[in-house]
Amino acid sequence: MTRWVLSQQQHVTEATGDLTLLLSAIQFGCKFVASKVKQAGLINLLGLAGKANVQGEDVKKLDVLANDIFRNALIASGKACLLVSEEDDNAMVIKDPEQRGKYIVTFDPLDGSSNIDCGVSIGTIFGIFKVDDSNNPSEKDLIRSGRDLIAAGYCMYGSYCEMILSVGNGVNGFTLDPAIGEFIMTHPNITMPSRGKIYSVNEGNYKYFDEPCKKYVDQVKQKYSARYVGSMVSDVHRTLLYGGIFGYPADAKSKRGKLRILYEVFPMAYLVEQAGGKASTGTQNALDIVPEHIHDRSGVWLGSKEDVEELESFYKQ
Ligand code: AHG
Ligand code: MN
Ligand code: MN
Q: Per the database record, which ranges form the Fructose-1-6-bisphosphatase class 1 C-terminal domain (predicted)?
């Protein structure tokens, strides 16, 4: 993966190697977390950390550990100026000029926390923005749309450990070979089928869905199979490889949706679009959202282009 990133950057005239270093820190974090996830039951890493995060959600021990690992790795890279994590109330500003770079990294250190304790696949999600002036970074630098992302990816800790990455010219997948500790390209140039045969949504929330959403789900289940892991990384990974549609809509219970814009919706929308698919709130392209606060949420549907357009047609009606 490092060789591939370096070879891509060779074509960028103003490239300095900074992004390569930042991505190396992320690779390191993913390897570290992958190793701890595998041992979690053996080294007392399952269960609750005993506190709630700023969003009122129970935090698991692995959420805390993964957050520490990524925060430390990103600071040590010296290439970030602002870090936004699901697990931190505020954005972390890198104040030391010696340790400060030009990138903002938004991340969900451990996605799918509810699946940790039963060994179902979980992941890490990240998005990368660049700032013009890295001297005074602040949360205001994140009041911008997902179109400004310069890279995004996720790592899935599943039956295999896979990093999916885009630096703006398509999507590639790299599988971790634990024996040599390297991410090896196994899924070059991932492109999504224009239509799939799977829909993925938490139908336990059906009673809260709005009318267009209910109507769409009623008709899609007549023709598609249902799959829902409950870890966004895993549900998106399947959707990226097999096609179909995944959604977590805004509804009467989660008025603004559940998934967070900066570190869940944007990175996944970016990857899906880079792979030829589409991401939408139902009425707007998901990458065009502009968050007001770092932990803002949005409803989102993403997947094969025609499937997402079909969902949108229910909102147009
Ligand atoms: P996180 O574990 O980072 O808080 O994210 C959980 C998210 C996401 O992974 C998944 O798609 C969704 O929550 C599942 O929610 P439900 O359990 O409500 O279906
Ligand atoms: Mn998450
Ligand atoms: Mn999380």
A: 192-316
Whether 86 contacts 263, CB under 8 Å: yes
Tell me the pLDDT tens digit for each residue of 12-69.
878 889 999 999 999 999 999 999 999 999 999 999 998 888 888 889 999 999 999 9
What is the whole-number distance in angstroms between the Cα of residue 137 and the centre of ligand 1? Answer: 29
Q: Which tokens go with 47?
A: 């269960």
Q: Specify the residue with its C-alpha closest to ligand 1, atom 8.
A: 232
The whole model's pTM is what?
0.97
Residues facing residue 182 across a β-bridge: 177
**All domains of the chain in start order, with CATH:** 2-187 (3.30.540.10), 198-316 (3.40.190.80)
User: What are the residues whose beta carbons fall under 8 Å from the beta carbon of 211, sequence distance 6 or more?
Assistant: none
The partner residues of 127 in beta bridges, in order of sequence, read 106, 152
Structure tokens at 268: 């996944």
Sign of CA dihedral 38, 39, 40, 41: positive
Nearest ligand to the CA atom of 56: 1
Place of tokens 């109330």: 89
Q: How far is the CA of 26 from the centre of ligand 2 (A)?
A: 17
In degrees to the nearest 10, what's the CA dihedral of 237, 142, 294, 72? 70
Q: Using the mean position of ligand 3's atoms as its centre, give its distance from the Cα of residue 36 in Å.
A: 16
C-alpha span between 277 and 266 (Å, rounded): 14
